[in-house]
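Collaboration report, partner site 2.

Our partner group contributed sequences for two proteins of shared interest, and the home lab folded both. The records are reproduced in the order in which they were received, starting with the first partner submission.
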Amino acid sequence: MGSSTSPLDKDMIARRLAAVRAELGLSQAALAEQVGLSKRSYIHYERGEREVPTGLVKALYDLYGIDPVWLMSGTDETPQKAPQAGIDFQLVDKVVAALDRELAKVGRKMRPEHRARVMKALYEMGVEQGHISPEIVADVVAVAVARGR
C-alpha cells in the first residue's frame, strides 16, 4: 500500500495480521490459502518482512469484514470489523499515498492512532467529494500538526 511503510509500521501491521488469524482460529497456511497467497508469502507479511499488498487487505475485508484502516494503522489489539460496506480500495490507496507524500513534504510523522484518524477523515472526505486532492490532504495534515499529532 505504498512504498514508505516504516519497519515499525510493518511490525505493527504484522501483529494485527497475526491477531486476525488467531481470532479466526486459522493456521498461516489455511489463511494464506483463503486469501490466495502462498504460505511463504503470507508468512513474510505476518513477520513484517514485506509490505502488505492491497490485495491482502482487500481479501481480509471481503472474506472477513476486517477494517482496512484498522489493519493498516489501528491501535486496538483486537481485530476490528469495517464500519461500513463497500470500501473503495482505490481511494484507500490514494489516501495512504497522499498522506505519506504530505507528511514527507512537511517532514513530520504521526503516531499510529492519529494517523488512523487522519486516514479515516481523508477517506470520508474523498467518498463525499468523489476524489482526494493534495490541497485537502495538506489542510487536514496542517490541522493535525497544529494539534500536536
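Second partner submission, folded after the first:
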Amino acid sequence: MCEVAVCDRALLAGAPRIFATSLDELAALPVTPARTLILENKEGLHALPELPATVAVHGGGYAVHELADVPWLAASDVVYWGDLDTHGFAILDRLRGRLPHVRSLLMDRGTVERWRDLAVPEASPAPHTPAHLTGPERDALAVVRTEGLRLEQERIPWPYVVAHLEAL
C-alpha cells in the first residue's frame, strides 16, 4: 500500500487529503501534478502543508523504485526527501536509477552540518555503493558514512523544512 498526500486539493477534488492505495490504483489516479514529493518517512508526509500543484507519496523504503512505474509520477518533477544516513542515500540512488530526473531535498552536506547535533549513531549502515548521486549528495553521504551518523528527516525543524519546500 502507498500512502498519498494531496497537497493541492484542486488536483484531485473530492478525494481525502491523505489516503492509502495500492500501486495499481495509484497509477490509475486521474491526477497530473507538476511536482511529486517522495518521502522516506510517513511522519513528514502527514505534516506537509498545502503546496501548489503537488502530490506527495510515501516511498516505501527500498521498494521506492516501483513508483517509477506510475506514469503521472514519472512525468512530473520528482523530488525525493529521505533520511540523511546510508540507507536514505541508497534509496535515493535506487530511485534515480529508474527516474534519472529525480532531485533531492535537504540531502546535502550543508543540511548534515547544520543539524548534526540532532543526529544519532547509525547502527547498521548500508554497504551499498551508489552510482546515481550528485556531488552534493555524495559529499553528504561521505560525512554520514565516515562519522556513522543518522539524521532522520523528521528530526529537522519543521520551519526549516517548510521554507525549503516552499522554495521548490
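Feedback sent to the partner group on the second submission included the following. Residues 7 and 50 are 5 Å apart (CA to CA). The chain has seven helices and eight strands.
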